[in-house]
Specification:
Elements (H helix, E strand, L loop, with lengths): L5 H18 L7 H16 L5 E7 L8 H18 L5 H21 L12 E10 L8 E8 L7 H5 L7 H37 L3 H7 L2 H9 L3 H13 L13 H20 L8 E8 L7 H9 L9 E9 L5 E7 L4 E2 L2 H14 L8 E4 L6 H6 L3 E7 L20 H25 L8
Parallel strand pairs: 3-4, 3-5, 5-9, 6-8
Antiparallel strand pairs: 1-2, 2-4, 6-7, 6-9
Length: about 450
């Protein structure tokens, strides 16, 4: 960390402390999320920037927040299996219910589609942002610095892996095994329900394949086994039910994920407000605090939709800062694999250059894909912005990821300061690139 920027790093860490310790958990659409949004708005006002807040509806449990519902579905299917062995028409209802639940899990929990939002209770979330204009008020392009306000429901199995904090490999193994157990059980129940429904539907229509299956010895053995497997699948389903703690007070405190991103976005904006001579030529800086990232990127989706026809959708460089805490894991995230979205190549190269110049460490090599879920760069990229996500976070499943163990005491202010220096370096590179080339648009390769 450079001494010249230490003050900003210290102030960023104080924001992180306030978010995690004073406000605490900040689930999507919650009072905690709004309190942090208001707090960041006041921070902007303190440096002479009038914040703007845009509200939107969110259904917190329609995406990953609703994963426990899959466990309840598995428990229901387990119980119904006993009855269906005697009342065969029940398999038809079980097949439909299982297929619908699986379809929702894949499309909404994994791929972040929004069709199911209407079926879940909705709350009001918000995006809060402020604009820092160049001294003459004229700009040709915009750099958006963003972090997300909200925190995630506590992942109970990960939190319990705290006892293995000195053996992270064991903690991850135990956590993953629990979820794999539950996933296999759910898939087995859904496929079994569909298979049995198909067989008995075929029997109703006198299909030869159904008669062959019903008369086969293996099918009778399978039916006998189904008298015992529900005991196993019911236990496995309980592991899925336990995945997200339903109590708001037990949710993640969100020091790393992602008070760090909001704090750095603000402090970088403050730096340029106090040093207007350092601002890139003809550039506007926007500090964007995004709501409801943890329930399927709803805030960034709402922001891109709100501004699709104005100048906040044109000539945009977007740096999403998400989780700056782990000093050996400075990385630029260049793709959301599950969302099938590749981020901007120019920004990737700039971050790699900044890591090299500043001596940042990365056990992953400095550039990586996000293997699960998604980040706010995906909606921005799809809206046409040049975007990447910057993180300094151990990518393996750890006891502090999405748990109440995500507290400021776990990491150092110096790491946050290193993150400040990295983004400042990239902004300087953007300014030089713009002066030389103008705005080139999104580059995938």
């Amino acid at each position: 960390m450079r001494e010249s920027t230490r003050t900003y790093a210290q102030e960023a860490y104080e924001i992180i402390l306030h978010a995690a310790k004073t406000i605490g958990s900040r689930l999507p659409g919650s009072k905690g999320e709004k309190a942090f949004s208001d707090y960041m708005g006041e921070k902007l006002r303190s440096i002479g920037i009038e914040p703007k807040t845009e509200e939107f509806f969110v259904a917190p449990r329609s995406a990953i927040g609703g994963i426990p519902y899959a466990g309840y579905a598995g428990l229901i299917l387990s119980i119904c299996t006993f009855i269906a062995l005697q009342v065969t028409p029940l398999w038809f209802g079980m097949a439909f219910f299982g297929f619908l639940t699986a379809f929702w899990l894949i499309t909404c929990c994994l791929l972040y589609q929004r069709w199911s939002d209407m079926f879940f209770p909705q709350k009001i979330s918000q995006n809060t942002y402020g604009e820092l204009l160049p001294p003459d008020g004229k700009f040709d392009y915009t750099i958006i610095l963003s972090g997300h306000l909200d925190t995630c429901w506590c992942w109970k199995h990960s939190a319990k892996a705290y006892k293995y904090k000195d053996k992270p490999g064991m903690g991850m193994l135990v956590t993953v095994l629990k979820m794999v157990f539950g996933t296999i059980a759910f898939v087995f129940l859904v496929l079994t329900s569909i298979f049995m429904a198909v067989v008995y539907a075929g029997d109703l229509f006198k299909a030869d394949f159904a008669a062959a299956i019903l008369s086969a010895a293996w099918f009778e053995r399978f039916r006998i086994a189904l008298h015992f497997t529900p005991f196993v699948t019911a236990i496995a389903s309980c592991f899925v039910i336990m995945w997200n703690d339903s109590h708001e007070e037990n949710a993640s405190r969100g020091a790393m994920d992602n008070a760090s991103g909001c704090a750095l976005s603000f402090e970088l904006t403050k730096y340029f407000a106090e040093h207007p001579d350092k601002m890139p030529k003809n550039c506007r800086i926007v500090d964007l605090n995004i709501g409801s990232e943890e329930t399927g990127l709803r805030g960034s989706m709402a922001f891109t939709e709100e501004h699709k026809n104005d100048d906040l959708s044109k000539n945009i460089w977007h740096i999403n800062i998400d989780s700056i805490a782990d000093e050996d894991h400075f990385n630029v995230i260049v793709k959301d694999d599950w969302q099938n979205c590749r981020f901007d190549k120019d920004l990737e190269e700039m971050f790699l250059a900044a890591f090299k110049e500043l001596g940042m460490k990365s056990k992953e090599g400095g550039s990586m894909h996000n293997p699960v879920g998604g980040c706010d760069s995906t909606p921005m990229t799809r809206a046409g912005a040049k975007s990447v996500t910057f993180a300094a976070q151990n990518p393996t499943l750890t006891y502090y990821y999405h748990t109440w163990h995500d507290v400021p005491e776990r990491f150092q202010m110096e790491t946050v300061g290193d993150g400040f220096d990295v983004v400042l370096n990239v902004i300087e590179q953007i300014g030089a690139y713009q002066e030389k080339n103008g705005y080139p648009g999104y580059r995938k390769k």
